[in-house]
Amino acid sequence: MSKAYNALDEFARELCDLIDKHRAELERDLEGIVENWRLDRIGFVERAILLLGTAEIAYLPDIPPRVTINEYIEIAKLFCADDAPRFINGVLDKVAKVKQKKDFFVRSLHPKS
User: Fold this and answer.
1) pLDDT tens, residue order, the chain (113 aa)
2) Distances (CA, A) of 89 to 7, 23, 84, 95, 109
3) Which among 13, 59, 58, 16 has a CA at the least distance from the CA of 33?
4) Minimal CB count within 10 Å: which of 20, 59, 76, 95?
5) Helix axis angle, 44-59 to 65-79, nearest 10°
6) Alpha helices in the chain, H assignment, sequence order
7) Counting beta carbons within 10 angstroms of the beta carbon of residue 9, is it exposed (0 to 12), middle (13 to 18) or buried (19 or more)?
8) pTM of the model
9) Measured torsion, CA atoms of residues 34, 36, 40, 46, in degrees rounded to the nearest 10
């Protein structure tokens, strides 16, 4: 197996372990954020995407929220209904704000003198 495959496999296991360990907290966080929805009313795939994204935002400080959100929007485009990517975007954006996770900042290539 390639190094990239092993790294992906390790990352997937880490995310699954985080969700397994913190599922109750992650679900409470999501229930506090989604308006007029209960988690059990959200589609299975959408709910899985939200749990994965929330775990990344909450427990993986080296991944900027913008990267997490964009990745899960792309997954939703592939596997969910047409309106799901916008829903995923809105919920994960709120998660990042509630968790006060800083995004990365673009640095100037030309420092001020």
Assistant:
1) 566 656 668 889 999 999 999 999 999 999 999 978 888 899 999 999 999 999 999 999 889 999 999 999 999 999 999 999 999 999 999 999 998 877 765 555 555 55
2) 26, 20, 8, 10, 30
3) 58
4) 20
5) 170
6) 3-33, 44-59, 65-79, 84-98
7) exposed
8) 0.83
9) -50
Give the separation between CA 100 and CA 79, rounded to whole angstroms. Answer: 29
CATH code reported for the domain at 3-98 = 1.10.940.10
Within 10 A of 38 (CB to CB), how many other CB atoms are there?
8
In degrees, to the nearest 5, what angle opens at C-alpha 37 toward C-alphas 99 and 82? 90
Give the integer Cα–Cα distance in Å for 35 and 29. Answer: 12
CB atoms within 10 A of CB 26: 23
Q: Which residue has the tokens 């975007």?
A: 89
Rg (CA), the chain: 15
Whether residue 53 contacts residue 41, with contact meaning beta carbons closer than 8 Å, is answered with: no
